[in-house]
Amino acid sequence: MVLISSNLLNVRHPIAYSSVRVSNECPTIFSSNFQLPTAKNNVSPITHSATPLVVEEPHQAISFLLDRSKRYTLEESKQLHSYIVKLGSSPNIYFINTLIHLYAVDGHLVDARKLFDKMSHRDVVSWTTLVDGYAKFGKMGDAKDLFDSMLERNVVSWNVMISGYGKCGDVEAARQLFDQMPERDIVSWNTLISSYVWNGFSEEAFEMFRDAIIENVLPNKVTFLSILPAVADLGCAFRGGYVHTLIFKTGIDVDGVLCSALVDMYCKCDCLEMAFQLFASNPARRNVASWNPMLAGLVRCNSFEKALDLFRTMQLQNVEPDYVTMIAILPAIANLGAVGIGKWVHSYTQRKKIRVNATLGSALVDMYSKCGCIELSLQVFTMVEHKTIELWNAMVAGLAINGQGKDAIELFYQMCVANLEIDDRSFAAVLNACSHSGLVDDGLEFFAAMKDVYKISPKIQHYGCIVDLLGRAGKLEEAKDLICNNMLIKPDTVIWKSLLGACKIHGNVKIGEFAASHLIELDPSDSSSYVLMSSIYDAAGQLNDAIMMRKMMNEAGIRKEPGFSLIESGGVVHKFFVADKSHPRSEEIYTMLDEMGSKLKSIGYVPNTKLVLFDIDEVEKEAAIYNHSEKLAIAFGLIDSVNGAPLHIVKNIRMCSDCHDFMKLVSDIYNREIVIRDQRRFHHFRSGKCSCMDYW
DNA sequence: ATAGGGTTAG
């Protein structure tokens, strides 16, 4: 794996790693005191001059006009226009062309056209500027009419037409013009390459790029900035390396922007190490856009802890997150259940007046849902103005995983009425809702409607929901029949695992063996098949078979995935493994755990040592049960939070039934709401009860 | 002296 170390960034953390919990795989992850950057108000980018133009003499108007760094409002452009008119009977053609440009770049095409028509003498630039105006605003009909009536064209005229077609999605037309044009320059090549990229034709874009190299066209920085996203999209490290080498060979200066594009490309080609090296060497590290691809890359590779670490480092360096950062980092926060950081990100958008559109809204809804804060998800959902199908899907899925099946179905119906195009993911969400809430009949109805009414052919995840649904309801034969006789796709490990999990709930050895054999055949290295089957045997009293299963696993050299629990406190995510003693406050934690044990026992709690398979005595079995990572995490949560605050835990594997009983009692005795997200679902413990109704 | 091509998310 890749080593991401903040040392590479030459960051000197101002805060000591006093309460850092470092896991085995991740050398530098969470440091204490998650710091909020100091708010600055200079955010909104200025696209137009804020103050009205003061033009004292015509000469000054000209320098305003020709200053390419400025953008003007329509009124200001008209003001400049009137000054130019005052200059005399035949104003310089340069000035008029620039005025046409001023009108055209902001889409004031009628004004631009009027000026163009009034000109007594026009040159190729006048024509091209207006053509470009039409092309930039999608009016390719007007652009083409004007382009066709041009008596004289140069390479720029052709390029603006190619660009126009490319931007409006007509790559065929763009390509035709490119082939027809009498001479091409590097901009022509760049334009066509980007046209392909924008429209998703990365392979074609790369072919174009290669043609350019073959034809000895010298690529420039823009060529590389255009082709790199295509290579990224293809995820082809080989071609990525080729492009990178060419950058070296052409001697082009790798500035911040080009470096960001390279980082992004390497991330998307799964070369995180290379990406990080480039990222660390980026000359523009004060720029957010250089951090965003690296963050997104880590998240994409499921390195959530490293992503959060980098996010923190970024803030220590006073680089302000932007909209793109939010979208990139929220899935990492969601995955780790770090709701404190999530809330901070949410409030940051409000403080910085970053508009929560449907995309950002979906990410926030997803994050809050995965942190078990469904009320906050609903709040965000309600606030977003133009709701997209993605947002609706995220909300339905959120209700589903939080066990609010009826609400999810209600929202799904609202979505149907809201005239949105229901897609396969909408059905996946609502089916998931049915399966989590045990709504068997509803689920089967939705499944049928999806196929028959909406004509959406089920994907593997839809089948997964139905198998889960049937299985959890105890209809194991029906579930098996669906898998064996009625699925149009080859069942994957998730399907078999669903069935096996159901067999565990309902204690069915026979179908369990059937599912386990398929599971082991498909993925012999997955420990969970052996572990699940072993516990099914154990529960059925077939102790010898249970031991045999464990033996099989051990002999194949398969290790059980170590269980861990995450709990966030004060902006830091703490990670606990089974019997973990490496936390700096370990002693306090174990003392707390003892205390909790006695309190619970005094009201009748009996540790369920039946779950411990090995032949050890009762005292040791009890200890083994107490060592489960979620118990350590909850003990830590109790001593490290204010009284009455809800505790959120994320676990990588499913909870055992003893931990489940334990949490119920803790929630009651300590008067705390406990939210635990395991591999499959949420458990909201309150006053001695769990939202899953002991059905999981 | 005026006109054209480009990075980060999903």
UniProtKB/TrEMBL annotation:
Gene3D superfamilies referenced in this protein's UniProt entry, alphabetically: Tetratricopeptide repeat domain
Ranges for the PPR repeats: 123-153, 154-188, 287-321, 388-422
GO biological process terms held by the UniProt record: RNA modification
InterPro entries: DYW_dom, E2_motif, E_motif, PPR_At4g14850-like_plant, PPR_rpt, TPR-like_helical_dom_sf
Species, as recorded: Tetracentron sinense
A Pfam family it matches: DYW_deaminase
Name used for this protein in its record: DYW domain-containing protein
DYW domain span: 604-696
Keywords per UniProt: Repeat
GO molecular-function terms, A-Z: RNA binding; zinc ion binding
